[in-house]
Specification:
14 helices, 17% strand, 6-stranded mixed beta sheet, 400 residues, 3-stranded antiparallel beta sheet, alpha+beta
């Protein structure tokens, strides 16, 4: 187990270049005879200073490139070059603030980028113009339609659905990166458990989570940590994290690391003083049973709506708790914590969350249990099983 954890922590932060090349090849096969133009995130002084640069997920999925202002031209079979990465020209003033950026003409760009042809981004229009008459179809992302339309002189087809289909099924390398994020997230949750005690503020547990993510080499939170104590646990996306935790209360912690651009998303609910009360135990066991019922039903061909119904019916059979389950059972996870993916007809290789909950404002109690599950050929495999969720194990961990 120790060796396995060490290997996870030593895993590369991104997939190797051949992985991104294979993704572009799969996309090219999905849109035969069509060319595609994608723009990476531009970045800005304000957003960079406030939260750091974050690449547009589809652009990163296809290129692995993590600097602002880039663009990608993908061409059909028979064209040479088949793909071109465009990079901004060098701006010495900006580089004094942000550091040196890659630019066309730099040595070793093919090795660094994975693209044999790298040109300045101001050459993109000319490269499109030289091929416009020979290519009948052009594709772009919906959010970038106006930019692509101006570039090609017409309305592009939508590229999004093809990328959703590709991104929904994770490769072995993607699963390795997701599992690393899950491992780091698990360790951070356990660190928060060790620190938790009545009188502590929610933001102190949030700081423990984020600190552990960064300490393990992950770039950021996958989303703002949710630390909801007592009545704050009933707010699904509670983020204020400002309340002092009271004795005897439950604490709902929903937090995940993002490592190498891949997200984790885990939730656990625990008693801050180490022991569930009779009522807390009753409610918690109902939510846990609903989660197990939904996980047991995961298999190819089922829908997220099916899994939601199974969990709600389980809760309804436990004193009518289904009406307090006020959201869907989960979502896809990958490059984004809410990754694009179908809600019907799950397929092998998809990674989803299973996260039933009950929220009782009149009792000041919110309970959610969330795990990440890989859809396999025969069912579902829990990827986050190392984070305890059985009542006895939680209480033992909190007692240490």
């Amino acid at each position: 187990m120790l060796l396995f954890r060490m290997l996870l922590l030593m895993a590369p932060v991104v997939a190797p270049q051949d992985e991104f090349r294979e993704r572009r090849d799969r996309l090219r096969k999905a849109i035969p005879n069509a060319a595609a133009v994608l723009y990476g995130a531009a970045g800005s002084d304000y957003s960079d200073l406030r939260s750091g640069f974050v690449q547009e997920p589809n652009f990163f999925y296809l290129t692995g490139w993590n600097e602002p202002g880039a663009a990608l031209l993908m061409l059909p079979e028979g064209f040479e070059p088949r793909e071109i990465l465009f990079l901004p020209t060098r701006d010495e003033r900006k580089e004094r603030y942000d550091g040196r950026r890659a630019a066309a003409g730099d040595d070793g760009l093919a090795r660094r980028t994975g693209f044999a042809t790298v040109l300045p981004v101001d050459k993109l229009e000319a490269e499109v113009e030289s091929r416009r008459e020979r290519i009948g179809q052009w594709r772009g992302l919906k959010a970038q339609t106006a930019r692509v339309a101006k570039l090609i002189g017409g309305e592009p087809g939508e590229l999004g659905p093809d990328l959703v289909a590709l991104r929904a099924r994770k490769s072995a390398r993607e699963l390795g990166l997701i599992e690393r994020s899950i491992h780091v997230t698990t360790e951070a949750h356990l660190a928060a458990w060790r620190r938790a005690r009545p009188g502590l503020h929610e933001f102190q547990l949030a700081a423990t989570l984020t600190g552990n993510f960064l300490e393990q080499g992950c770039g950021r939170n996958a989303y703002p940590p949710i630390v909801g104590s007592g009545p704050n646990g009933v707010t699904l996306h509670y983020q204020a994290n400002g309340r002092r935790i009271g004795d005897g209360e439950l604490v709902l912690v929903d937090a995940g690391a993002e490592c190498g651009y891949y997200a984790a998303d885990l939730t656990r609910t625990f008693p801050v003083n180490g022991k569930f009360t009779v009522r807390q135990r009753q409610l918690y066991q109902a939510v846990l049973g609903a989660q197990k019922a939904a996980i047991g039903a995961v298999k190819p061909g089922v829908s997220m709506q099916d899994l939601t119904r199974i969990a709600r019916e389980y809760l309804d059979a436990r004193g009518g708790l289904g009406k307090y389950f006020t959201h869907g059972i989960g979502h896809h996870v990958g490059l984004q914590v809410h990754d694009p993916g179908p809600l019907v007809d799950l397929e092998p290789g998809m990674v989803i969350t299973i996260e039933p909950g009950v929220y009782l404002p009149e009792e000041g109690v919110g309970i959610r249990i969330e795990d990440m599950v890989l859809v396999t050929e025969t069912g579902g495999r829990v990827l986050s099983g190392a984070l305890p969720k059985e009542i006895g194990e939680i209480e033992r961990r909190l007692a240490k």
